[in-house]
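subagent[fold] <- orchestrator: predict structure for attached chain, return tokens only, no commentary.
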Amino acid sequence: MSTAADGLTALVLAGSRGPNEPLAVYAGVSHKALIEIDGRTMVERVIDALAALPQITRIAVMIEDPALLAGLPAVRRLGARVQILHAAGSPSLSVAAALEQLGTPLLVTTADHALLDPDWVRYFLEHCPADRDVCVALARREQVLAAVPDTQRTWLRFADGQFSGCNLFHLATPAAGRVVRFWRELENDRKHPLKMLRRAGYGSALRYLFGRLSLAQALDRIGARCDARAALVELPFGRAAVDVDKPSDLDLVRRLLAAG
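subagent[fold] -> orchestrator:
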């Protein structure tokens, strides 16, 4: 299923991880998506970056209470181009619900991707192989640290390098739904790559442990488990790996934006 005049739909995950989410408490808001940076909430920064791409004809934002977003300037300005949906209980459940409502292709990102740049999204979409069901954006550690030396990331350590996720996913076909179902199994282990790989098979976990598993091999194994074709798009933008998960991330992003 695809609508919005054959354009691409983008999904922004803006849900909360609970009433005591540390970063929201730190900033004094109900949802970290509503944290303001230089006069704009993080979710508006993401919406504006996506709206700068004409091929993205619909932007769906998932949050527990849609009324929290209805009055934001970016939402009002874009009118019918923005659709606000109810978030489910976790990111994977929200994406699964969005796939049912919106269909594919679907570009997925997060509201805490406060530095998101339209050029990053454009590059990602242009480099997603046409024959894949799911594409994932990552950046090499060297690129990330060259751009942001003082960032603290979770690194995926493979035989061909260390990578960090960039919170950009292209769910190209309905087969992506099987990957999302597998994601539900992984959600609690997202900061523990070895545990994630065990779910894909002990052979993969051992190869990862001994530094013999490449990132492409890991994607192939996960794809085989899900009966889907997955691909990596390596982004040449180090800042694309910087999201806002903790107070130090927020302070870093504010410094980067203040410095231009």
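orchestrator: received. Logging for downstream: Strands lie at 8-13, 36-37, 40-41, 56-63, 82-86, 106-110, 134-140, 156-158, 161-171, 230-234. The first strand starts at residue 8 and ends at 13.
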